[in-house]
Write a structure and sequence with these properties.
Elements lengths: L4 E3 L6 E5 L4 E7 L14 H5 L8 E2 L2 E7 L13 H10 L12 E9 L5 E2 L3 H13 L27 E3 L2 E4 L37
Antiparallel strand pairs: 1-2, 2-3, 4-7, 5-6, 8-9
Length: about 210
């Protein structure tokens, strides 16, 4: 996708967006950044005319809540400061009931990038992520850092492939890399790209 050039409505200098890098909504000055214009602002009509599409997205968000308190706690003699944290983890039943009354802070709404997908293939991607975490040995033969179709190792700005973690999950033209049957999905006809075949993986429509 090509970048769009326009003029900043704040400082009247040229700006361009990062469509080719996968972020058409992010703009930057093409000249030395004006310290009085830290955030480029495209004209309203230019922004509204950028092409859009509606797609299903699977999102995973984690919320981290922190608790902080002091309490009297019986410990074994010889427990060092470095060993205190794992010691408390092993004796969770003796302090866990105190948490609810000792809320400290929260970091809310952090998106987990490795589990957030364009969800036309969300079921497959989610099952693959779980399989990689829980029993990677069962799918090891299909785990690859490079696309089995074009041989490219997808980078952060790649839009032709879809990764789960470091591994290519969907290759060129929507081809599945890992056999869906081995990640708990039923009914997909699939051809093994690790063998000497013409088709490298099954298409997402199962054909």
């Amino acid at each position: 996708m090509k970048n769009t050039k326009t003029t900043c409505t704040r400082c009247r200098t040229p700006i361009i967006n990062r469509a080719a890098n996968g972020r058409p909504d992010v703009w930057g000055h093409t000249t030395v950044t004006n310290p009085f214009c830290p955030t480029p602002s495209p004209p309203y009509l230019v922004e509204q005319n950028l092409p859009r599409e509606t797609r299903t997205i699977r999102i995973r968000v984690e919320e981290v809540v922190t608790y902080d308190w002091e309490m009297k706690f019986e410990v074994h003699l010889g427990v060092t400061p470095d060993a205190l944290s794992p010691y408390l983890s092993d004796h969770e039943e003796r302090w866990i009931d105190s948490m609810e009354d000792n809320y400290h802070s929260a970091r809310i709404g952090e998106i987990v990038s490795s589990r957030t997908y364009f969800a036309d293939d969300a079921g497959y991607l989610a099952c693959l992520a779980q399989a990689i975490d829980e029993h990677p040995e069962k799918i090891m033969k299909w785990l690859t850092l490079t696309c089995p179709v074009c041989g490219v190792q997808p980078g952060a700005e790649d839009t032709e492939h879809q990764n789960v973690g470091y591994f290519v999950a969907i290759a060129c033209e929507g081809l599945y890399v890992v056999n869906p049957g081995w990640v708990g999905m039923d009914g997909s006809r699939w051809e093994d790209w690790t063998k000497d075949v013409t088709v490298n993986a099954s298409r997402k429509d199962g054909k």
